[in-house]
Amino acid sequence: MKMLVFFVLLLAALPALALTPKQASSLAGLALKCASAEFPNKADHIASGMDDLARPRDAHPSFYGCFDWHSSVHGHWLMVRALKESPGLPAAANLRGVLDAHLSTAAIAGELARRALQGLLAQAHLSDPRRDASEHGVRPRFRARLRPRDA
Q: What is the DSSP string of the chain?
């Protein structure tokens, strides 16, 4: 996983460099290997009850692999970049299959629905920063500077 993140960051930092087919194949293989690996997984959302807990694949139909959501997004970007640089990769059919499944209309709609739900939960929980500051032990002199989002 760390190697995948390193190479994605390297590619992002050096956009002018083209990948050789061997490099594209190697990097795409890393992304392909973890794209559908549901576990291990680090969930990163607010759960206000048991109904908010879901398997990674159910919570994020497009981006559930590669340990966490963010890494999965980078992995998908890497698969697209590898196909763009080297369309004739040996794993091209597998890459396109994963991308077609994970970036389908239904999967993306599931991602958007989950993000909207998480936004509503966060807004309800953090609607008054003064209350939250008080609950979390923020000193009174700082608490007075906080304003509700509506104000």
A: -HHHHHHHHHHHH-TTSPPPHHHHHHHHHHHHHHHT---SB---S---SGGG---HHHH-SSS--SBSHHHHHHHHHHHHHHHHH-TT-TTHHHHHHHHHHHTSHHHHHHHHHHHHHHHHHHHHHTS-HHHHHHHTT--HHHHTT---TT-
pLDDT in tens, 16-47: 567 789 999 999 999 999 999 999 999 877 77
Q: What is the pTM of this model?
A: 0.68
CA distance 49 to 104: 29
The residues, any chain, with a CB within 8 Å of residue 83's CB and separated by 6 or more, are 28, 89, 92, 95, 96, 99
